[in-house]
Write a structure and sequence with these properties.
32% helix, 5-stranded antiparallel β-sheet, Alpha-Beta Plaits, rod-shaped
């Protein structure tokens, strides 16, 4: 079970996103950026507070880790549970991690009440989430395929229908393809390649780790 959890895919914030929401003249400005550590998140939150130093509130939330093991949120002076917690719920519900968010509020002169605040902070961050680029991180294996030229067409056709990434191709006395395969598909892909070439193909494992799957 531990290994399955370790290799589970997860979604991360890859490019920043921004959004705004306005209610009763109160303006809510949401900023969402990648953050891979608590230190990165804290630096980002401080930078937004300096940028919007004249705002009434700069509420924040962040999620860190492949299993979303580190979470924090702050209401920054808003009534308890009306800002930071709803923002954190937006991130957790979206299933994303390694991201930090700040929603800046410029007070419009009218109190919004608990429900109004929760709605405003939620919708502002949802807008930023829609604007951000999110990618899937998969745990995979990199391998090199060695084959005679007579098998190249067959292997290329097979790879085109499999969940693999071709990283590089080399043609010398033999053809070599460097590919990346999701961990859970590794044995299946190796079996199909071996069967398709009647075991003529050579497969060298180069390493494994998490990689970005931007096609997911």
């Amino acid at each position: 079970m531990a290994a399955e959890k370790e290799f589970r895919p997860y979604k991360v914030i890859y490019q920043p996103g921004y959004g705004e929401y306005e209610e009763k003249k109160s303006r809510f400005i949401a900023s969402l950026v990648p953050a891979r550590s608590e230190e990165e998140a804290a630096l980002f939150i401080d930078s937004v507070k300096k940028k919007y130093y004249d705002a009434r509130h700069n509420c924040s939330a962040f999620v860190i880790g492949s299993n979303r093991e580190l979470t924090r949120c702050s209401d920054d002076g808003e009534p308890g549970g009306t800002a930071g917690k709803p923002m954190l719920e937006v991130l957790l519900t979206a299933g994303v991690t390694n991201g930090a968010a700040v929603v800046t509020r410029y007070f419009g002169g009218t109190l919004l009440g608990t429900g109004g605040l929760v709605r405003a902070y939620t919708q502002a961050l949802q807008a930023a989430l829609q604007d951000a680029e999110i990618v899937l991180m998969r745990y995979g294996t990199e391998m090199t395929l060695h084959m005679d030229y007579t098998d190249v067409g067959k292997v290329q056709y097979l790879l085109s229908g499999l969940p693999v990434q071709t990283l590089e191709s080399r043609y010398t006395d033999k053809a070599e393809f460097d590919i990346r395969v999701p961990k859970e598909q590794e044995e299946s892909v190796k079996k199909k390649l071996t069967e398709a070439t009647c075991a003529r193909i050579g497969i060298t494992i180069r390493g494994s780790g998490y990689y970005m799957d931007r096609q997911a």
